[in-house]
Amino acid sequence: MRIQFYVISTILLLITLALSLYVSPNWYVLFGIVLIFTVLGYYDIFQTKHTIMRNYPVFGRLRFVLEELRPKMYQYFIESDIDGRPFNRVDRSTVYQRAKDVRDTIPFGTQLDVYDEGYEWICHSIAPKAFDTLNHDPRIMIGNKDCAQPYSASILNISAMSFGALSAAAVESLNGGAKIGNFAHNTGEGGLSDYHLKHGGDLIWQIGTAYFGCRTEDGKFNPELFAEKAKHPHVKMIELKISQGAKPGHGGILPAEKNSEEIARIRHIKPHVKVSSPPFHSAFDTPVEMVKFIKTLRDLSGGKPVGFKLCIGYKSEFISICQAMVDLDIYPDYIAVDGGEGGTGAAPPEFSNYVGAPLIDGLDFVHNILRGMGIRQHIKIIASGKISSAFHVARAIALGADGCYQARSMMLALGCIQALLCNTNKCPTGITTQDPSLTVGLVPEDKKVRVAKYHEKTLKNFVELLGATGLDESDNLTRSHIYRRISFNDMITYEELFPSIKPGCMLNGNIPEKYKMDFMFADKTRWGVHP
Description:
Residues 71-88 have low confidence and may be disordered. This protein has helices at 2-22, 27-46, 51-55, 62-77, 88-99, 168-181, 194-197, 223-230, 261-267, 287-300, 315-328, 349-354, 359-372, 390-399, 408-414, 436-439, 444-468, 494-497, 516-521; strands spanning 120-122, 139-142, 151-154, 156-158, 184-186, 202-207, 235-241, 253-254, 275-276, 306-311, 334-338, 380-384, 403-406, 482-487, 490-493. Helix 11 packs parallel to helix 13 (359-372). The protein has 19 helices and 15 strands. The strands form 4 sheets. Strands 4-13-12-11-10-7-6-5 form an 8-stranded parallel beta sheet. It has a 3-stranded antiparallel beta sheet with strand order 1-14-15. Strands 2-3 form a two-stranded antiparallel ribbon. The chain has 2 domains: 2-60; 133-519, TIM Barrel, CATH 3.20.20.70. The radius of gyration is 25 Å and the shape is globular. The chain is α/β, with parallel strands linked by helices.
């Protein structure tokens, strides 16, 4: 669009000028109008704050008209959640406001219907804690007894999004923001690129089923290549991706039009062809082998924290992994629990909508099993799946998480307008495309500051929420602090909805009734549910 603008504006200027000089002076009016729009367009192209305007000079300004209309109509047609309630009318606007460092308060009271079934809120105290007395940068130490290089992580970090799915400029912006804000950036399964390393932000290197960046020619895991890259000082943790909430049981897809020479080099694959990641790992075949592979990754990385990410499917399979941990006395340093509501650039709608447990259900289950089997102290939990506000962070921590990942909100901080073109290579904001004519509009030096500002202000609001409850440590948030409306006149706490269990209560065969069937089918020597 930038090139078209150069050509069209130049032609129109020449034509109207010629008409003014040789036909009639009245044409000077049109020449003046064309000149004004040309100057406006050139301003749009050379400013760095608004990607849409850089990519679509003059016409991109219509975006602001739509944003003004959003409170009246846009939300009802575009921004609906899975269950039909508004998702980003408040949260999306809040992300923009925080990223741009402008006022993020709202007028005229709550914009949600507090009498809707499913409405949730957090308890507050008559004696809240003053913000100035609280820790403004809550962090968690990740690393158990076998970890030689524990990592102090922010409780809020960037979720897995690969270079290839995202543009180089988007990856740079995210990592630059992580560097400024002192939080971590998950690489996604697309490999460790130069753009992840350029700005020096802390990295969580995710290893998926295709082993991009550490694979052999035939797609198997390459330990030598992994060890070489894992020891890079910017790589703080390693994450083994078992499944993704947006499409659990389904491998990743990189369209041929996104698979450039550069991406192919980073991933160690052939360029310009569609690449589909396998839905399962070839490096291990059983829960026991998976746990041993986690130890292998930790050893090869020089003792850095190693975790795995999954969306809960068969509960017996997760239990079998835990049984293998206990049997081998080997534990991951953390587990990232993804929810079925998690986002992706491309997936079959059946997988996005109907496969995988939602985050709160998966989080409750994982925390309970680890706690009941007496191994929770070895493993931190990171929650991921449509976490878009400080309240969602507080809710996840109350359910048992130690920290959280955010993907979609971080993309909004970059300037994503949810054009829903992620899988077409035509993203107008230059975030999910490899088209140079679109990525040129996204300027990392500007957007990295927005990412850092969004993180800073969301963390600040979380700390303020914590103080409002009368607590001074996030560890003290419990399920009793969160309420949910289940009908017009019935409200229950998360403790009533998801009852806690006592540490070690599953030892010696004392399995709670609700989990007995899952334990019956658990088998650390094989996957699947078996009679």
